[in-house]
Write a structure and sequence with these properties.
alpha+beta; seven-stranded mixed beta sheet; two-stranded antiparallel ribbon; 26% helix; elongated; disordered C terminus
């Protein structure tokens, strides 16, 4: 649930704050997906929020950095090839380029998304401690009907993926031993490392903020 909390907190913020062509987003235009592909019945645009990977940051505690992707799909079947660049990428009111940049500005270092994600996992101590940061964006690319789960040639669209990373979360491992519960390896003596967390990690990593 914790990883999902970041995805759904991002979706909530975009739907409540972002508009396209002077219209607010809704779940028909923006949703959490398995990957960047929109649902079959998606309209002219779709904003897919989907999980990236995650990696460990420490050998002493379970501290992970998580990634999140936002993929834009702009249908262009009604636009001639000679007009696709102008209408879907450059156009100031409908263009993919400006819309992608706006999403970067809305998500990068957004502590409101971080707070909302933590509110969704309030019953656990495994909190998000740092927000998403913009990492990179792919260039726009053409896709065909397979992208919409339709027959090839029926649909065309431009697609662009914006990657965010470095959302950090500190967890207590399910089987993490503690000094009072650990007496060494049976028949083999005690381990050299007693598994106690260094004071600087407790202060600077586990509890760097006054979280509830």
């Amino acid at each position: 649930m914790a990883y999902a909390s970041l995805l759904f907190a991002t979706k909530k913020f975009l739907i409540e704050n972002l508009t396209y062509a002077n219209r607010p987003l809704n779940e028909g235009l923006c949703d959490v997906m398995v990957d960047g592909r929109p649902p079959t019945n998606a309209g002219e645009i779709f904003v897919a929020i989907h999980a990236g990977g995650f990696r460990g940051l420490s050998t002493e505690i379970l501290e992970c950095s998580h990634s999140l992707n936002v993929t834009l799909t702009f249908r262009c079947a009604k636009t001639g090839f000679d007009r696709v660049g102008m209408k879907n990428i450059v156009d100031q009111s409908l263009g993919m380029g400006d819309f992608a940049q706006l999403i970067v500005e809305y998500i990068h270092l957004n502590y409101q998304i971080l707070h909302d994600a933590n509110e969704r996992i309030v019953k656990t101590k495994n909190r998000w401690v740092e927000p998403l940061r913009f990492a990179n964006s792919s260039p726009p690319r053409y896709v065909d009907g397979n992208w919409f789960h339709a027959k090839e040639g029926q649909e065309e669209a431009l697609v662009q993926t914006i990657a965010f990373s470095e959302a950090k979360r500190v967890q207590f491992a399910a089987f993490q031993p503690y000094p009072e519960d650990f007496d060494g390896i049976e028949g083999g003596g005690a381990l050299e490392h007693d598994f106690r967390l260094p004071e600087h990690l407790i202060k600077d990593v586990l509890f760097p903020y006054d979280l509830p």
